[in-house]
Every structure is written in C-alpha cells, then in structure tokens.
Design brief:
Length: 231
C-alpha cells in the first residue's frame, strides 16, 4: 500500500500544495494522470479545476470525478488518486452513497498511490470520528477506508499560552475520544504528512503529536519511523 496523507493542502504564505509538491511528485512517480476526488466541497467542477491547474504546472494531467455514472470506471482504471480536503462528512456521505468508498479502498489496498489532504487524509483512518468538521450532512455511517489502523486528526493545533479561550483544546477533545475508543490518534500539525510504503510508516514535514489511551501524548519529529502504529 502506498499512501501520502497531508494535514493541509495550503500552508500560510504559500500557494496550493506548494509546501509538499516536490515530495508529491516523487510519490506519484511515473503516474502521468491523476484522478481527483472533489466530493468534500460543493462546487465539484470548480474544485477539480483548481487541482487541474496546479498539477498542470508540473506536467501531470488531472481528471475529476463528477458524481455521475462514469465515476466507477474512472476509479477502477486510475493510475493514482488524490482526495481533496473540505468537509469530511460530505466526502464520506458521497462516497458511501455512490458505492465508491469500497472501490477506492480496494484500489488503494491493491497498491494504487493514494494522496489525501485534510478530509482526504481523515478518511484513510478506520472512521471519521476524529475529524474537526461540522456534520453538515449525515452519512450512513462514520466508517471510512481503514487504510491505516489508527485515527488521524489533521490541522492539529496546540493550545496557545495565555489564551482567553475557555473551551476545550484540541488535546482535550482527542482525550475525550480516547475515553470511549481504543485506537491511537495522530495529530498532524500544518505542513506535516504521513507516508506509508507497504509496512513502513514515516512522519515528514512537521512534528506531530501521538495520543494513546491511558498514556501521555508523545511528540514525533519529522523523519520519525512510526511502523509500530501499523502493528
């Protein structure tokens, strides 16, 4: 299995995918055509055009799913796939109701390169229970692709010292998740990503925070080997 799971698609002060594009291109290898899944946003053509224009600068052709009968054939024949960010509930709802979630799972498990960002990274986990998004739609279930056996929290934010915000921090919310769930959670900070090649998992780009039930959170630095999370 080959996965590249980005916390975010845009870093502050940079353009769309600029912070990760050299590594994305290396990850895609010889794939000259990329299938884009725009289902996390409402405007499918507009979102696909954004991805198409960015990858065109790198010599990679992008074809987008359009929520019609031809999507299954496109996914079944794709060289590589990019699942874009947006609202995770909308993304999962569209994939589940169209029957494409299982097709996407089978293709990724079969070795098709899977690139995800934000919501597209959320759905690589077993469920979407650690997304930050508002449930604007109700999918049939919270089940996702399960391409990794742990949960992911993209856009992970550390508590700001001196902040007057009295609500739960991101760490608080992930600890709440672990009160009722066993699976570890990787909090991916902005600019970071996870890279899976078969049985190997590495953190790249930025530090991350790893949460396990009954244990203190652990810091992981770029370059860290996280194979134990695949165990």
């Amino acid at each position: 299995m080959r996965l590249m799971l980005l916390s975010n698609s845009t870093n502050h002060g940079q353009g769309y995918l600029d912070h990760a594009m050299p590594v994305v291109l290396e990850f895609l290898g010889s794939a000259g055509r990329l299938l884009f899944v725009p289902f996390a946003l409402y405007d499918l053509p507009g979102y696909t055009e954004k991805a198409r224009a960015r990858f065109a600068r790198e010599g990679v052709e992008v074809v987008g799913l359009t929520a019609d009968a031809g999507d299954r054939a496109l996914l079944e024949s794709a060289e590589a796939v990019f699942v874009g960010g947006g609202n995770t509930f909308r993304l999962v709802d569209r994939l589940q109701r169209s029957g494409l979630l299982e097709v996407l799972r089978q293709r990724a498990q079969g070795g098709m390169p899977y690139l995800g960002a934000s919501a597209g990274t959320n759905i690589a986990a077993p469920t979407i229970r650690t997304t930050n998004d508002m449930p604007i739609v109700q999918p049939p279930s919270f089940d996702a692709l399960g391409l990794v056996p742990f949960q992911i929290n993209p856009h992970y934010l550390d508590a700001e010292p001196g902040s007057r915000h009295m609500g739960e921090t991101r760490e608080d919310r992930l600890r709440e998740y672990l009160e009722d769930n066993e699976r570890p959670v990787v909090g991916l900070r902005e600019g970071g990503w996870l890279r899976r090649e078969g049985a190997s998992l590495r953190l790249e780009g930025a530090p991350a925070r790893i949460f396990r039930r009954g244990a203190d959170p652990e810091e992981a630095v770029p370059g860290a080997v996280l194979d134990q999370l695949l165990g």
